[in-house]
Description:
Distance between the termini of chain A: 67 Å
Strand content of chain B: 15-25%
Number of strands of chain B: 5
Oligomer: heterodimer
CATH topology of the largest domain in chain A: Heat Shock Protein 90
Distance between the termini of chain B: 14 Å
Structural class of chain A: alpha+beta
CATH superfamily of the largest domain in chain A: Histidine kinase-like ATPase, C-terminal domain
Helix content of chain B: 40-55%
Number of helices of chain B: 5
Helix content of chain A: 40-55%
Radius of gyration of chain B: 13 Å
Strand order of the largest sheet of chain A: 14-18-19-17-16-15
CATH architecture of the largest domain in chain A: 2-Layer Sandwich
Amino acid sequence: MDAMDAIRATYFQECDELLSSLEEGLLALEAGEADGDTINAVFRAVHSVKGGAGAFGFEPMVEFAHVFETALDAMRSGKLEPEPDLIKVMLRASDVLADHVQAAKGEGVVDTARADAITAELVAMTAEEAAPAAPSVAPDLPVAPAADEWGFAPLKFEFDEPAAPPSGWRLVMRTTAAMYANGHDAVLFLRELSRLGEASITLVKDELPPLAEIQPETPYLTWTIELPADVAEASILDVFSFVGDDCPIELTRRGEANATAPAPAPAPVADVAAIIASVRHTDEAAPASAEKAAGGADKANAKAAPANGPTIRVDLERVDRMIDLVGELVINQAMLTQRVAESGLARSSTVAIGLDELEQLTREIQDSVMAIRAQPVKSVFQRMPRLVREIAASTGKQVRLVMEGEGTEVDKTVIERLSDPITHMLRNAIDHGLESPEERLAAGKPAEGTVRLAALHRSGRIVIEVSDDGKGINRPKVREIAVGKGLIAADASLSDEEIDNLIFLPGFSTATTVSNISGRGVGMDVVRRSIQALGGRIVISSRPGKGSMFTLSLPLTLAVLDGMVISAGDQTLVAPLTAIVETLRPTRQDVRALGPAGHVLAVRGGHVPLIDIGVALGLRAAPIDPTEGVVLLVESEGGGRAAFVADEIQGQRQVVIKSLEANYQRVDGIAAATILGDGRVALILDVEAVIERRLSERSAPLAKAS
Amino acid sequence: MSKTILTVDDSRMMREMLLMVLKEAGFNVVQAEDGMDGLDALERASPDVIITDINMPKMDGYGFIEGVRRNDVYRATPILVLSTESSAEKKTRARQAGATGWIVKPFQKETLLEVIRRVCA
Lengths: 706, 121
């Protein structure tokens, strides 16, 4: 990567930060928290994006940012009130700006129709403040003011205005009513002219009447354009070939005499003008010159840019490598502990005590390393307001998004995979959950629906909640569809909760027509499966007429897991501790037969199905006697309970998760694998999947019976 | 001895760009993120030339220029404004605050260096 690429990368990184602070600021303004600082920050964000875009020559982005900035400037100077309607337009403008940034990165295209519509709205907004024609002046065309306006003491410098070429073309271009009536835009001509060479464009201001007397449909503007002598006359005339008499021009060639008779100005000014003129002559465009500079630049220079503030940037690869190594360290340390224990050394021996300390330290190192990779969920959350706006716009619903707990931290590997499920749940909440404004009003609710997205830590897991105040799940309809699709028996008796959970079944979709919002070929079943693949769970709760809430819970990291080590058959298995409610040794009278093969366990007045874990995983043919083994009472996130029968419990420990899918292949009922202290490989149970399979085995015959 | 330039800009990218260009041209560069930071860096940098942005958080370019000029040591130090803006009103304000020159972003490397050499002479 050369120096220029590095700067470009910095720019895009900065853009992302600026865009999110822009959106944050606009949302604050929308919420009525308008203060000067917020407006300034919002203005600066767009301003800085534009500045960089100019440096890299991203012209369309510069133009759009300029229009946006003008509107923000009007707001900053108090000419425009930050009213909600206006902020909504600006929020959409910030989306378009984000699209421009993506396009500049080469990762997408700008919807020009949409961009133009927003530009028009922004221009209309500011038009009341400015002269009617003013917004149509392209931002990238320097409008040269009279030279004598400036007198920078003590060195009389004026650097930016292009020095008049000593010789060349002088073009006077007048706007006419006919030109506008026929849809010709003066800006396009100016832009076209500036492409021919170093154009110096000056607006003839004396023809402009005072603002109060300006007639919106009357043309007032005249420009004088100076072009270098080497531009062919034909190419200048070509620019106006389509417009004909609608745009009268006067083209004159300026004599060489002008160059030899310098303006009666102080010597330094003339000098600098000459320098600049010569410099400008050798360099056509800023990006080109910057690129050249990059070629010769010492690469170390760009990298030597000091990172400000108490943070450092580290390659993720290095952190990942460290996490891997710490994982190995944990395994190694556990092996060592086990060897020492087997060697018969006393717990009080100095070696054993030293090992205890080592274990403590290892645990702390592991926590610290994991904390390096932990990130606030904000990076995912901040993409959602835009999504919600877009869904709201396409469904015609009014939606307010409330976000909580954006600072909640979770491992980077988890964050990356949160985006899709959250996106889908939000789509679902707005598309299926919320009613149309009319329906809401009829139901006595405010026209604007509220969707809440929250993140929180709960017992060592991260919980994401997506709730809406819509109509809730239509249970009779869900049931009807499930029966219609053969997913359940017509006479199956299901609790409300079980009906709600039907929407997670593969092939289920409540929308009668596949809408382009939720129905992108992904159902809630896919969402659930992708979450389960992360060791997560998803549940739904719903109240008719009040709304629904999806609760998604995920482990904080995909690297380690607190587990209970059990044996079944000749295998050692690990059950995630988070799923285990309690362990017990059942007595004979606790176990009751249910049907020919099924058994249930009586636990405090209730009954839960008994599942022999060895049989469930195909490790043995016949179940063992539950009273001979141990029972793990497990609970799924959905509240479903089961009693897993295992041979014995070996202990409880933290294990390093090794993906089974990445190293072997997916196995039903198994979430992952790990390496135990003695070096053996153990499989980690997918509790949810085991319970689910058991339930489906139970309901399948019911479905057939109907 | 090479000259020292203090650059004041809230954009990291702009700071890096200036650093690259100025280092290559053999200047020492001290960077600041906003006007306030720039005033803090003044003594540390003891710059021969100052290049500042206008739109910045905490303290803008005007405030910074005025602050520099209040310090007797830097009463005559050249201050170049580097801004995307070019309105008459803003230039006038910068001049009144004590700016020496105004360069419009995006800048051309050669223009910038030539102007710096001029004001240093």
